[in-house]
Each structure stands twice: as structure tokens, then as C-alpha cells.
Fold this protein.
Amino acid sequence: MPSDEETKPGGASLRLAGLRGGGRLSFWLIGIRDLQWRRRRFALAAVAASMTLALALLLSGVGAALDSEAGRTVASFHADAWLVRSGSSGPFTSPAPFPVGWLARVRQLPGVRAAAAVVIGGATVSGPHPRQVNLIGMTEGVGAGVNRFGVVLRRGSALVDTSLGIELGSRLVLNGVRLRATGLLHGRTYFAGVPTVVVALREAQLIAFRGLPLATAIVTRGSPRQVPAGLARLQNRQVVDDLSRPILGAEQTILLIRLLLWVVAGAIIGTFVYLSALERAREIAVLKAIGIGTLALMVGLIVQALAAGLLASLLAIGLETALAPASDLSVAVPTLSYLLLPLLAAGIALVASLAALRRTLAVDPVLAFGSA
Amino acid sequence: MEVVCRDLAVEYVSSGYRIRPFDGLDLEVGPGEIVLLLGSSGCGKTTLLSVLAGILRPLRGSVRVAGVEVTELSARSLRAYRQRSVGIVFQAFNLVPSLSAAENVEVPLLAHGTGRHGARGTARELLERVGLSDRLSHRPAALSGGEQQRVAFARALALNPPVLLADEPTAHLDYIQVETVLLLLRKIASEGRTVVVATHDERFLPLATRAVEMSPRPIVESLEPTTIDLGPGEIIFKQGDPGDRAYIVEEGEIEIVRPRADGAEEVVSKIGPGGNFGELAPMFGLPRSATARASKPSRLVGLSPSDLQPWLTKHALIDN
């Protein structure tokens, strides 16, 4: 028998039970022991939830990539302002050509330190499997693609995005015009992963306008205080918004699917914890009957939900890392997402376990007197 | 007295009907005594244990355990009472399957605030006392029925309560394991504890200080037939009453009614002249399952259940 004074038969004086001292942490153990007891089911729930979380993470990466490609593309021009034909909503979505000779007038405008004519359009790379690409033609001097790689755009040369799968030095035919890949670009895609090919302005005019001396935009360093007749001025932000518009629907769909995947992951974990609470009804009744507080019992379930959520999120990060390279689209999961995932998964697991917690509250200790 | 019950009545709802397994029960058990609650299934043995354990609140009456009026305790104090004043051994052991034998015994200690080391030491000591020192880390599934029962006893005694309640402690056990349980109970009582055992295992009788018969005994002796005259609304017997006689309606009409859980009354049947009722309760030693009431001026003949069939046969022959 216990020799401790406190545990002698107490007569009339009753002590309050509950979570005190060493008891507080130890009730974590009941949850953990139950997880060990049901380890197969726990592992299945964690793996199933991790698969949906991995998909959510992948979609988050795709969403982030889509979100950033417009900004990255516009930033690569290092422009302070864009001039497009009046009536055009933007240089990428509605390119409207105008004579390249207008560039001379723009260079004279007050506020403009430098200006370059640009041709923006689409083209097709010929081959056994034709690929749609975004075409950018630019003069030297302005354009990060040129300066960053130290490649001077000459006639017959092209800078191609690596996602096109063309090796450096290889030949490519763009709308019938023969070119050689003299430089590679990384992550230069827009319109949801369509790779970009940058060529010299004259080459672009040949591809897009049969050699006519036309341009679809003028980018400037310094912002012109006046805009010549026939042109409209856009800020970088406006150009980014314009470039993002065509994929807005896709981005919203991705967001919706991500949310649904979170809900499914939560439902899997919630179902696991709920079933556990359901199966443990008699055990919970017995524990209540011998004086264990409801709060202490809930700690056990919360531990299970947290463990399932955390394990699922860790497995999901591993799965996402393994699956991401298989995607054609650039998957750029923000570091913050990796950090937030375990926290969010734990939070969702807790919310999903509310039904199980309610169930625990509702268990009548009288049930303890029943037979198995 | 360690356990004193006065005028105790319990009511619960089953299948939509209000059931009173006992009404007006008195019980006194002193320290060191072993009291058996005997009776068939459904007679209220386990219900009485639930009331003594502070798990079920009675409809009426007083329950004093170790000087504390249990019926007046708040929910929080009841939890403390269940920890400190009563140890419970449940039917079918009801151990936590995911915990080892030692951890099962530690649970009430940890809930009480004992440190982890202290709880482990006490659990080991208790399990050694019940002969399970080599089974500390075994889960219930790896233990025999008798071993599980001994773990259940160790858990019930973890906080050294003055009262031990055991519900069918020999169910699911073979005779060798039963012997161990009987010895254990005797030892527990000899230490000055009050032990209340709900069972229908009469092997406990030599061990017990006293036995309380919870279900009425079947009526086997013959009773003199008696004629009863009733006015409208008069009651012959109430639900829950012990059964003594069967009745034959000679005149008038008898309603058999049951109180429903929602407070309404359900008329189960109406019995007119020539009809009979009420033979099952005295025949099988069950409480009355419904109330019988005259709906109009009536005359009944009450007789032993064993006399009912000959009486009916005889009267049918005379009528013919």
C-alpha cells in the first residue's frame, strides 16, 4: 500500500482532483501510448493527410511561381516606364504595333534618360513537338536578359529559357527564322509557364512583322513627363497587373483547390481522432469514473491531433520535394510555406478534432460499468 | 458505518420508458465488511454501485460514504471523491488497452498529482502485492483474465481508498483465477476497507459479511385466493413493486400503464372481464414492469401464479 501520508484513507476531507504537478505532463502519455497502440491506423492517416498536404504545397509553389513570373518578367526590362500604343491595355496582353521611328521622339522627351524599342509577341518553335513561346525582341542597352548574362544580342542569336529544353549552342527555328541559342535564361516564363525567347529587335520584327520596322512598346529609363500623341504611358505595376490578368482565373482555381486540399487533410486527421475517441468511449468512461478530469482526457486527444498534423506535414514536405522536379511548371514553394505548414497542419488538426473533443465531453462515466 | 444509504431511489430512461430498478433502498456497510449485492441481471446491482461511486445521481435518498454526503457534492468534488474515497473494479476489467500494467495503475496517482517517480514506485509496489511484479510492462492484451483483474484491483487501490466497489469481479474468470480474486478481496477487507461486491456468483457467499438480495425471489408457495374490489383510478400495483400475485378480472376494466420518459403515460393494454395479468413478476422474481390501475369499478381475484392456470382451466370447464 502507498505509504505516502496523502494517500491514506482520507475520511471526510476531500481533495480536489485534476491536473497538478507531475500529473500535467503525464497525461500527454495517454495520447502518445494510444497512438503507439493504433500505430498502423495513425501511420495511414498521417500518410493520407501528407499526400493531400504535399499536393497543397505543390500548388502553393505553382501559385507562387505564377504570381512571381509576371513581376519577374517586367522587372527584367529594368524600365521606369512603358509606352504603348494608345488604346492598348498593356504590352504583353494586347501588343499594338507602331513605327519604331517614334523611339527617336521619345528619347528627346524631358525625364527620359534612355529608351529602347521592344517587340513583344508570341511565336512557335518548330520541331517534332512544336512549342509555343513568348517572343521578346529588344535593342541592346536596355534589357536585363542581355546585360545580366553578358550576352550581346546579334542577328541570328537567341536567349532561351531553360524550360524550353534547348541546350546552349543548339539551333532553333522560330516561325521559320533560324536562330542559335547563345544564352540561357532561368525562370523567365509568363502566361503560366510559357518559356520566353529573347532575340534582337530586328529578328523579332522579322518573326512578328515580316521585317517591317515596327515595335509594340518603348521602355524608358526615367519617366517621360509628357507622352507623344498616339502613345500611352504605363507604370511597371500596371504592366504587371496587365500581364497577370490572363492567369487570374487559374490562380483563383489553384487557391480554391489548395483550400479544398487543406480541408481534406483536416478531415482525414479529424476522422482519425474522432474514430479514436469513438472507439475509446469505454476507456474514456473508465478514466472519468476513476476521477480523471475531462480536460486531462482532452489533452490526450489534442496530443494525437497535433502528432498526426505534424507528422503529416513533415511527410508532405518530403513528398513535395520529391515530386516538384516532375512538374513542367516552375514550382517555387516559398520558405515561409515550409515553416508555416506544420503550424497550419497542427492548427487544422486541432480544429478538425473538435468533434472528437465534444464526443469526449459527452461520454457518460456510467458506461464504465458496462462489459466489453 | 462507512457506507450508509437511506430511502434510495434511482430512475433512468430505457427504450423510452422510465425505469426504477430500486425505490426506497436502505443499506449499511461497516469498515472491514464485505457486502454482496446479489440478484439477476437488471435488478439494479450495478446501478447501486454507480450511485455509491458518485457516478449516477439518485432520484431520491441519501448516500453517505466515509462521512460524506455524496448526493450533495458538486461535480468537481465528486471527481475528487471518486479519486480518493472509492476504488472501483469494473466488470470485464476495463483497463486502458494502450497502457502497460504499471501505467494503468499510475493513472489515478498522476491524476491526483503524484509525481511520475512516486506514481511508478507505488504502482510497482501494488502490482508486487497482487503477484504481478514480472508483468509491469505488459499491456492488458498480453495478460490473462486473472492478471488483468489483479491489475484492476491494484488500480482501484492506488490511492488507498476506504471503500472498494467491485462489479462482477469473477465474470470471465476460471475457477483458479476466481480463487485468487476471493483471497484478494478478503485481504483488502481485512485491512479495514469496506467492500461492496455486485455479483450473481454465489461462491462469494462464505466470504461475505452480509448479502443483499436485490431482486425479489420467485413466489413458489401457494397463496389463498383473494377477491379485491376497486374504484376507478385505484392502483393494484406500481411499476417496480415486487410481484406476489397474478390477477383475474371478474368485473370492470384494468389498465396496464407505463410512465414514458417524456412524462406522459402509455396505456399498454386494457383488460376486461375474464382476462388476467401480473403472473410473470411473481413467477420469475422480477419487479412489476408496469402499473395496473382500475379504469372503472372492478372486481379482481388475486392468486398465486402457480394457481392461475388450474383456476383458468377449471373455470373454463364450468363455463362450458
The two ends of chain A are 29 Å apart (CA to CA).
